[in-house]
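To whoever is on call:

I kicked off a structure prediction for a single chain this morning and the downstream step that reads the tokens threw a length-mismatch warning. I double-checked the sequence; it's 63 residues and nothing unusual in it as far as I can see. Pasting both halves so you can look.
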Amino acid sequence: MNKIVGDSQQQYVSHSNVEAKDLPFHCPPEDVQQWNMHPKVFIQFDDKGKGTCPYCGASYELI
């Protein structure tokens, strides 16, 4: 996967925990402010329970 978020933007990228009951999970989450929206994309989690949004670089972790 190509990294869309540059290193200079990384400081603004969020990290959130996601519970199994919230699956399937998408970014942006429903509680994000309108100005911060991008097209909805469903997050795929790897075998370690980690996933990243290809649009904004937000990272998510299954707990």
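Update from on-call: the warning came from a stale cache, not from the record. Cleared it. Sanity check on the structure: The beta strands are 15-18, 26-27, 41-42, 50-52, 59-62.
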